[in-house]
Amino acid sequence: MNTREARKEKTVQCILDTAAQVFAETGYEGARMDNIADRAGVNKAMIYYHIGNKEALYTRVLHDVLGDTAVRMAENINRADTPTDKIHAYVQSIGRTVEIHPHLPRIMMREFASGGLHLPEVVVKDLASIIGLVRDVIQEGCSRGEFTDVDPLILHLMVMGGIGYFKTSGPFRRKYSALMEGLSDRTGEAGVVDLIGEIERIVLSALTNC
Amino acid sequence: MNTREARKEKTVQCILDTAAQVFAETGYEGARMDNIADRAGVNKAMIYYHIGNKEALYTRVLHDVLGDTAVRMAENINRADTPTDKIHAYVQSIGRTVEIHPHLPRIMMREFASGGLHLPEVVVKDLASIIGLVRDVIQEGCSRGEFTDVDPLILHLMVMGGIGYFKTSGPFRRKYSALMEGLSDRTGEAGVVDLIGEIERIVLSALTNC
Amino acid sequence: MNTREARKEKTVQCILDTAAQVFAETGYEGARMDNIADRAGVNKAMIYYHIGNKEALYTRVLHDVLGDTAVRMAENINRADTPTDKIHAYVQSIGRTVEIHPHLPRIMMREFASGGLHLPEVVVKDLASIIGLVRDVIQEGCSRGEFTDVDPLILHLMVMGGIGYFKTSGPFRRKYSALMEGLSDRTGEAGVVDLIGEIERIVLSALTNC
Amino acid sequence: MNTREARKEKTVQCILDTAAQVFAETGYEGARMDNIADRAGVNKAMIYYHIGNKEALYTRVLHDVLGDTAVRMAENINRADTPTDKIHAYVQSIGRTVEIHPHLPRIMMREFASGGLHLPEVVVKDLASIIGLVRDVIQEGCSRGEFTDVDPLILHLMVMGGIGYFKTSGPFRRKYSALMEGLSDRTGEAGVVDLIGEIERIVLSALTNC
DNA sequence: CATGAATGAGTCTTCATTCAT
DNA sequence: AATGAATGAAGACTCATTCAT
């Protein structure tokens, strides 16, 4: 039933989703509270009432997703036996997250670009926890002699970066296809699943050398 | 001697360099004209006098570099004989640009993230011209049977993305090394030359398949 | 009671009245949004919230009055039978407008001086509609053999100009009475009603020739 | 010969003429020193060097013309015998001035509109001296029993106003002729001479009653 | 809870004026 | 005299945030 709690939850989710989209489109500095409120169909003051100021909103958008991702990823990695399976669990966890939250990669791209300038403490910890999981998997793989030593931060940046650039190339393709021949639209929202598989293969080949 | 022309040129270059840095740090929306002027050591009105408004400044910052890069790249590719040598010329041209203009990759990352939200027409054309060069090299390689067909936009995004993520990982590493063990600072400004070589190898292996 | 609608309406009217005064005193270019806000007793941002930017404000100030004037004038002219009565309706409509909106003539004087530099499209249409009414009355009078042919634009300029110069002579008189003897204050706000009557007589004598 | 003095004189005149034009077009507040300098073909700093700041420039533009007009008008009135001839001298002096300085009426219109807000002291005195001449002529005519008593300020405003509105109706006519039928271009620069004659007749008939 | 209104601290941009050469 | 460059004080407009109802 539609309890008061449920309706509030729905409103908050709607705000967060819209905010994610706006932050992805225009960045933290470019995002306008007015715009977020309008597109979410709520009064601007409601954002402040339910969530807080711009910084708190940004934090919620990232922490809700990344915190959850870190927890699930830890569970999935724990459930896996071999280092290879654990890498599978890692990449698939990322894949699931970006499937549910398609605006995340663009937000993270900007954060990378600014060197994490206004990443809030909690989100830094979320990311650190994810990178820590990767580090542990690599270390286990190395000590078992199955992996070569690879920097976990670089690896994670590559994974996120690959997804980010892939997912953001769409608008560019549209922009450039008018200017150039030979640029058919090979990418699309549908291709993300395969993208994840491809990335997993690349990551594993990088870890097992060749 | 210090002719008037020369001093003007110096001032303009100083403004452009500072602007590039600020745009890289905080993005177009986050950049403050006041801040740029202060850090460049000039009066704010001088930016408007010598260059123009924020948009014109952003355009100059990107077009001065990318227009020149496109021209040089075309020359270098023309001078090369085989498709493989041309890809070498392409990657090295990029490498030279980001070496001289270390803030460019971060600016481009943000543009990718926003789907080219602030990219001015001229700069879009500069990019199109670069991607066109890549496309032509790939086509020649394909028709000679040396390359497999690869999307030139994706290829270029990968190259720029790889450099961008690599160059921006430094601040992250510093941020995270405090939180985590096993994250020594493996990247650095010095590593760019090798980075370019590594990227060239990856690009060629992607084009020649395996 | 003081409903929200009513209070908003009051605020908007206060802003518009103050703006009319400031525009009349210093012209479009000389008017300061800060000044208008201060004198209206509202926060500057409220002008933008309720009305819009300087141009929109100027447009509202003129269109609210002239649009209404054009409509009422058309009604009054329609209600009148003879061309002479219609001219009466025309002049009295003008008179009523400048009585209620005493700052309008000065604003229009400046517009005439600049050739309508800042006149927005809507206001040009309002004026055209008024001049159109005058033209039709003159044409009817001519075809009835009661009027001689007179240029409607010139006629309207004369009417507006006469009122404008008359109403603005007050400050001048005050300025000059100190410098000169024999310049008693013969004009005053009270004299406007008679002014309108005088103007009507002049206009009619010009139209009936002699 | 082109002495240094002569060249300077030419430059100053050019600046003053251009300034008059710009002040007429956009008003004191709307006039831009940059614009005046550009259109006069001189460096902006030269205006400050030769004439002074914006206010000084405005003063020069008006005082050079009105001071001279007042002097000549006094001479011409003195030379005339009857009050009627003196009125002729007055109106013709005005006519000669606006013929040589076609931008003056628009500038004066704005001054009237603002109640002489930023008319400098000297120019106020020039105007006062002109109105004083008119007053004296009227008084003489009255004491001779030839004129009825008419307010000299109002009379002068009417003369200047008539010329002003007539001369500024051109741009309006062009603006409105597109919107309306029956608005042929009856006014023109060429018509000024006749305008002056017409005004003289009106003034005299007002003074001699009827 | 929800909403329109209010606010003050910015942010970009312009412009009259002055300086150095 | 003449010019390009420099400057500081506004001015228009925006925006995150809060208030009153």
Describe this structure in words.
Four copies of one chain form a homotetramer. With 210 residues, the first copy, chain A, is an all-alpha fold. The first copy, chain A, has two domains: 1-52, Arc Repressor Mutant, subunit A (Orthogonal Bundle); 57-207, Tetracycline Repressor, domain 2. Helices cover 77% and strands 0% of the residues of chain A. Chain A contains nine helices and no strands. Chain A has helices at residues 4-30, 33-40, 44-50, 54-79, 83-100, 104-113, 121-143, 152-177, 192-207. The longest helix of chain A is centred in the first third of the chain and has 27 residues, at 4-30. The radius of gyration of chain A is 19 Å and the shape is globular. The model of chain A has no long low-confidence stretch (mean pLDDT 88). Chain B binds a DNA duplex (21 and 21 nucleotides) through residues 4, 7-8, 11, 32-34, 42-46, 48-50, 53-54.
